[in-house]
C-alpha cells in the first residue's frame, strides 16, 4: 500500500501506518469519547477523551497483535512476510506467497482470530480485577472489542479469516483449490451484500456497513481472480510468454530509439552492455530534463534488470514479482543467450486467452477439452 509510513521492523517485517489510519483513529476516538464511555460511566469530558484516545490506540495495538499472529505462523511455515500495514479497515499482513497446503492455510488464518480471542480474555481478566477507576472502563472496552474482532473475523466470508478457514476445510474436503475458492468467494459476496443491505436499512449511521460490504465484495472477487490467474499460469510453459525483440544499441540517442520504437511498434526494449542487461521503457522518458545541449543517449533512461531463465523461473512467481516491483519488461535467457522479452502485458494477454478457452470448453464440453497443457 502506498502512502504508508514504516514505523518499525519486527522479525524482518516492516510495520507500516497508512495515512487512512489517522482518520480512523480520529473517528474512533470521537465515537468512544462521545458515545461508548459517556453512556456507561459518569466521567468529565476530558477523562472521556483521554479514555477514548487510549482505547483507540490500544485497539490498534490489538489489531497489530492479530496480524502479527498470522505473520509469525506464516514465517514458521516458511512463507515470507513483507509487512504489516494498519489502515482504515484494520490491519493487513502482506504474506509473499499463498500456502500450498490446506492445513497451512488453516493454521495461518485461524491464528489471528485466536490471538484476538486471547486478548479478549486477557483484558476481561484485567477488567474483573478492577484495577482502578479509569483502567476498569478501558479494559471493559478492550475485552469487548477483541471478542468482537475474533467473532467478526471468523464469519465464513472469504477473504476474511473465517472465509479462509472455510476455504481450507473445503479445499481439504474437495481436494480442489479452485472450487473451494469459488465457494468461499461467493460466501464473501453474499455476506458483503448483507452488510450493504443492513447499512441501507440503518442509514445514515449504517453507511459504515455499506463501505465495508462493498470493500468485502471487491476483495472476494479479486481473491478469486488471483486464484484463476495462478491456475492459468501453472498450466503454461514460460516460453509461451516470450516475444522476440532485437536488442537495441545503448549508444543510440533517444531520438534514434524513438524512431526504432515507431518502426517496431513497441514501447520498450532491452539493451546489453558488457554482461549486463538493461530495460528501456518509454515511461522513464518523462524524467529527461528539458534544454540540454545535445539529445540525451538512450542510456540515460536505461535501468539495470535481472534476467529470466527459461529453465528455472516459474510463470506465476515471475508474474507476482513483476507486479509487486512494477517491472514492465525483462530479458529472457536460454542456454546463456538472449532470446527475447517477457512483459507484464504478455501475462495479461495469455491469462485472458486461457480463461476464454476455459469458458468455451465449459460451453462445448463434448467438443473441446479443457485448456490444459500447451501440448496440443
Ligand atoms: Zn486476520
Report what the structure shows.
- It contains ten helices and ten strands.
- With 376 residues, it is of the alpha+beta class.
- Among the domains are: 151 residues, no CATH class; 112 residues, CBS-domain.
- The strands form three sheets. Strands 1-2-3-4 form a four-stranded mixed sheet. The protein has a three-stranded antiparallel sheet with strand order 5-6-7, with no helix packed on it.
- Helix 2 packs across helix 4.
- The two termini are 41 Å apart.
- The mean pLDDT is 88.
- The structure holds zinc ion.
- Zinc ion binds next to helix 2.
Topology:
Elements: E1 4-10, E2 13-18, H1 19-40, H2 45-76, E3 81-87, E4 90-95, H3 102-128, H4 135-153, H5 161-174, H6 177-201, H7 207-234, H8 254-264, E5 268-273, E6 276-281, E7 302-305, E8 308-309, H9 315-324, E9 329-334, E10 337-343, H10 344-363
Parallel strand pairs: 2-3, 8-9
Antiparallel strand pairs: 1-2, 3-4, 5-6, 6-7, 9-10
Helix pairs in contact: 1-2, 2-3, 2-4, 3-4, 3-5, 5-6, 6-7, 7-10
The structure holds zinc ion.
Quick summary:
This protein has 376 residues and is α+β, with helices and mostly antiparallel strands. The protein has helices at residues 19-40, 45-76, 102-128, 135-153, 161-174, 177-201, 207-234, 254-264, 315-324, 344-363; strands at 4-10, 13-18, 81-87, 90-95, 268-273, 276-281, 302-305, 308-309, 329-334, 337-343.
Amino acid at each position: 500500500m502506498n502512502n504508508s509510513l514504516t514505523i518499525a521492523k519486527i522479525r524482518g517485517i516492516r510495520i507500516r501506518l497508512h495515512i487512512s489510519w489517522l482518520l480512523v483513529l480520529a473517528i474512533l476516538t470521537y465515537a468512544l469519547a462521545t458515545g461508548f464511555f459517556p453512556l456507561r460511566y459518569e466521567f468529565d469530558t476530558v477523562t472521556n477523551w483521554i479514555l477514548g484516545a487510549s482505547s483507540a490506540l490500544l485497539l490498534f495495538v490489538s489489531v497489530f497483535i492479530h496480524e502479527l499472529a498470522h505473520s509469525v505462523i506464516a514465517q514458521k511455515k516458511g512463507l515470507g512476510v513483507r509487512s504489516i500495514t494498519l489502515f482504515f479497515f484494520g490491519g493487513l499482513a502482506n504474506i509473499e506467497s499463498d500456502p500450498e497446503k490446506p492445513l497451512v492455510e488453516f493454521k495461518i488464518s485461524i491464528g489471528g482470530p485466536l490471538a484476538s480471542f486471547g486478548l479478549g480474555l486477557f483484558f476481561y481478566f484485567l477488567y474483573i480485577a478492577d484495577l482502578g477507576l479509569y483502567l476498569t472502563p478501558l479494559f471493559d472496552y478492550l475485552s469487548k472489542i477483541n471478542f468482537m474482532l475474533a467473532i467478526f473475523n471468523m464469519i465464513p466470508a472469504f477473504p476474511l479469516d473465517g472465509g479462509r478457514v472455510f476455504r481450507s476445510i473445503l479445499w481439504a474436503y474437495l481436494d480442489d483449490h479452485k472450487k473451494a475458492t469459488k465457494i468461499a468467494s461467493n460466501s464473501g459476496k453474499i455476506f458483503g451484500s448483507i452488510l450493504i443491505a443492513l447499512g441501507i436499512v440503518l442509514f445514515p449511521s449504517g453507511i459504515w456497513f455499506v463501505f465495508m460490504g462493498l470493500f468485502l465484495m471487491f476483495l472476494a472477487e479479486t481473491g478469486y481472480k488471483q486464484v484463476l490467474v495462478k491456475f492459468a499460469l501453472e498450466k503454461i510453459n514460460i516460453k509461451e510468454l516470450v516475444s522476440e525483440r532485437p536488442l537495441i544499441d545503448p549508444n543510440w540517442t533517444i531520438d534514434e530509439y524513438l524512431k526504432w520504437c515507431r518502426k517496431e511498434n513497441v514501447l520498450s526494449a532491452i539493451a546489453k552492455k558488457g554482461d549486463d542487461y538493461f530495460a528501456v521503457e518509454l515511461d522513464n522518458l518523462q524524467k529527461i530534463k528539458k534544454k540540454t545541449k545535445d539529445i540525451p543517449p538512450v542510456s540515460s533512461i536505461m535501468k539495470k534488470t535481472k534476467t529470466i531463465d527459461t529453465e528455472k523461473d516459474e510463470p506465476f512467481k515471475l508474474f507476482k514479482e513483476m507486479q509487486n516491483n512494477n517491472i514492465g519488461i525483462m530479458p529472457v535467457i536460454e542456454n546463456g543467450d538472449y532470446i527475447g522479452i517477457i512483459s507484464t502485458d504478455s501475462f495479461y494477454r495469455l491469462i485472458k486467452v486461457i480463461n476464454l478457452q476455459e469458458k468455451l470448453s465449459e460451453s462445448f464440453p463434448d467438443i473441446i477439452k479443457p485448456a490444459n497443457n500447451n501440448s496440443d
